[in-house]
Give the backbone structure.
Amino acid sequence: MAPIILAYWDIRGFAQPIRLLLANSGLEWEDKLYVTGPAPTFDKTCWFGEKETLGFDFPNLPYLIDGDVKVTQTIAIIRYLARKTGLAGQSDDQQRRIDLITEEWHDFKGPFYPLCYNPEFHSLKPAYLTNAALKLARFSKYLGDMAWFAGDKLTYVDFLMYEIFDEHKLLEPTILSAFPNLEEFQARFEALPKIAEFIASPKFIKYPINNRMATFGG
Ligand SMILES: N[C@@H](CCC(=O)N[C@@H](CS)C(=O)NCC(=O)O)C(=O)O
């Protein structure tokens, strides 16, 4: 059987939680990386030249090809893979937590990438960090002493949360220091055997998190 193909820019970005989930699954998968050209034009012909030719209903990056199945939209991809690998939650209680955390992840991530790409990044960062700390306090309180965000079982939202927290640690290394349970969550996630193996492997993209035109993380 052909390996699953996950396509994205050659950065962490939206694809990284999907990569982590694939790595944890033990499924055969490959990255297809599109590479933006250098400044000042940051040419993206490698993607836009073939975007409409690949047979997607809503072509975009990231995209996933699994045999006859073609999926775009980060959350649609991650849910497809979560259902395939038993990480989509089971009980009503788990589903409710997953739904809530997915939306909170969206809201937390929303202002992050615009900040990273903003030419005024350095002057905007302090106010961003103040707001982020308020959100992190809520995530910390919600997680409480649970192992994972939907309870005692790992689900796909943990991949979303791990990645966005780790990117925030690159933004500000001490950002989780006031929240020991979030630090422990990160360590617990990184200790999952297949995740630890993936992070140590050459396939793992640590940097860049953003594309070349970003002020931060590019
Ligand atoms: N809502 C989409 C947004 C996807 C998106 O904005 N992708 C950006 C990279 S983060 C891109 O370059 N898309 C290629 C395109 O617009 O054709 C998702 O979550 O996957």
In short: The chain has two domains: 4-86, 92-197. The longest strand covers residues 4-9. The chain is about 50% helix and 10% strand. The beta strands are 4-9, 29-34, 63-66, 69-72.
